[in-house]
Design a protein that fits this description.
The protein has about 425 residues and is α/β, with parallel strands linked by helices. The protein has helices at about 5-10, 15-25, 35-40, 50-60, 65-75, 80-85, 90-105, 110-125, 125-140, 150-155, 190-195, 200-210, 225-230, 235-250, 265-270, 275, 285-295, 295-300, 325-330, 335-340, 360-365, 365-380, 395-400, 410-420; strands at about 175, 180-185, 210-215, 260, 295, 315-320, 345-350, 390, 410. It has four domains: about 5-105, Alpha-helical ferredoxin (Fumarate Reductase Iron-sulfur Protein, Chain B, domain 2, Orthogonal Bundle), CATH 1.10.1060.10; about 110-155, no CATH class; about 175-300, Rossmann fold (3-Layer(aba) Sandwich); about 315-425, Rossmann fold. It is built from 24 helices and nine strands. The longest helix is centred in the middle third of the chain and has 20 residues, at about 235-250. The model has no long low-confidence stretch (mean pLDDT about 95). Bound molecules: iron/sulfur cluster (2 copies). One iron/sulfur cluster binds near residues 37, 51 and 78. One iron/sulfur cluster (SF4) binds near residues 35, 79, 80 and 81.
Length: about 425
């Protein structure tokens, strides 16, 4: 499409990059067919093509973001289904991230919206604060019928009980059980280690059992995706910088074969650190090296010689393909192949390309639309009549579990169980 940015605007690398992306879009509209918000709402402004047009108008104008544009950009899940569908290679992810930063810089949101986003941006990336907030949510849960909208959504998403912190927390090195074949860093993340600590525990057990030494640098934490998707680039960069420095230090020390990530939403962001630090003269090379080593746990697991060691009951597993895994990282077959190799009866879910509505903080900020997508996903899962659901992203797991009674487990918990680990608690 034709763009009309001024030369002064194009001197800004962000505008220049967005200009390149916009020019790739030919407005064919193929992407609308697979966009969850367009599918639900049927409004062109809630489609990728409509949003791309509005972003162009907003950025070219140089004016504060108009409220109508903010509404439709806020409704975007960043599920990246449009990037999978687009035949012209439009990098919607970088474009919408720039749009969100522009909105954050130029638009004044209503007070409650600002406060909520500010609080989420501070609490979610910090496990200790997040744990405290969940204790508060548990205490307030009986009052949920007195609340509406986003407050109610937050109380409903809070788990009914809090898991104790992992016994493995704070241990910096987990040696390989057999002779060491590989050495990796594990990203233990932020919200996941509070909501479901067994996912990291299962990952460590699974890797060390297969001859992989696992290091967990103390300084590494949240990947930065949560603030980034709220347009708070400064906060995201601060968190990402800590990770780049921590993992680079391991890489330059004893060396690393991979950086393992078991929350696919984080994996998509870490794999994009090269872009995030493009303008940083000091960190850009280190960030590129870190991004190049980032690996989803299933992507890494297919390189291991897995041995099934346990006789498991015959279980039909509905595999939910998280958007960040299938669209963000283009990893579709690996999780299913691994589970099938362990004799699980894996079934695909209809409309598997459509988001479950979790999308980071989306289910808290857009509860109505998120609820519609959750119901759609749950209905599609139920139609396959599975025994359990498996996914590779804690956000999706929590979203789906809040809508159905079936056990929802992480793919690596099943792989750990099949290769000699304990049965996941969710199946007890
Ligand atoms: S499919 Fe790609 S080129 Fe076509 S309208 Fe969508 S983003 Fe633009
Ligand atoms: S990221 Fe998802 S919700 Fe947003 S425009 Fe693309 S397909 Fe639609």
């Amino acid at each position: 499409m034709k763009t009309e940015f001024s030369l002064a605007q194009l001197a800004d690398p962000k505008f220049s990059r967005s200009n390149d992306i916009l020019r790739n879009c030919v407005h064919c509209g193929f992407c609308t067919a697979t966009c969850p918000t367009y599918t639900e709402l049927g409004d062109e402004r809630d489609s990728p093509r409509g949003r791309i047009y509005m972003i162009q108008q907003m950025l070219e104008s140089g004016e504060p973001a108009p409220s109508s544009t903010v509404t439709h950009i806020d409704r975007c899940l960043s599920c990246l289904s449009c990037m999978t569908t687009c035949p012209s290679g439009v990098h919607y992810m970088h474009l919408v991230d720039h749009a969100r930063q522009y909105i954050e810089e130029t638009h004044t949101r209503p007070l409650f919206d600002r406060m909520l986003r500010g609080v989420l941006g501070v609490i979610l990336p910090r496990p200790n604060l997040f744990r405290l907030a969940l204790v508060g949510a548990l205490l307030a849960r009986p009052l949920k019928l007195l609340t509406t909208g986003r407050i109610r959504a937050m109380l409903e998403m809070a788990p009914s009980r809090l898991e104790p912190p992992s016994a493995l927390d704070g241990i910096p090195v987990h040696p390989a059980e057999t002779s060491r074949k590989k050495r990796v860093a594990l990203m233990t993340g932020c919200a996941q280690k509070v909501l479901a600590p067994d996912i990291n525990d299962a990952t460590v057990r699974f890797l060390t059992r297969h001859g992989v030494e696992v290091v967990i640098p103390k300084q590494a934490g949240c990947c930065g995706a949560l603030p980034l998707h709220m347009g708070k680039e400064g906060g995201a960069l601060d968190l990402a910088r800590e990770n780049v420095l921590a993992w680079s230090s391991e890489l330059e020390g004893e060396g690393l074969d991979a950086i393992i990530i078991n929350t696919s939403g984080c994996g998509t962001t870490v794999k994009d650190y090269g872009h995030l630090f493009e303008e940083d003269d000091v960190l850009s090379e280190k960030a590129k090296a870190v991004a190049g080593l980032a690996c989803d746990i299933t992507e890494f697991a297919v390189t291991l010689d897995l041995q099934k060691r346990a006789e498991l009951p015959s279980l039909k597993v509905a595999y939910h393909s998280a958007c960040s895994l299938q669209h963000g990282q283009k990893i579709k077959q690996e999780p299913k192949s691994l589970l099938s190799a362990m004799d699980f009866n894996v079934t695909d879910i209809p409309e598997s390309h459509i988001c479950c509505g979790s999308a980071g903080t989306y289910n808290l900020l857009q509860p109505e639309l998120s609820g519609k997508l959750k119901n759609r996903k749950v209905k599609n899962i139920a139609s396959t009549n599975p025994d359990i659901v498996a996914a590779g992203n804690i956000g999706c797991m929590a979203q789906i579990a809040s809508g159905m009674d079936l056990p929802v487990v992480h793919t690596v918990q099943l792989l750990d169980w099949a290769t000699g680990g304990p049965k996941p608690d969710q199946l007890s």
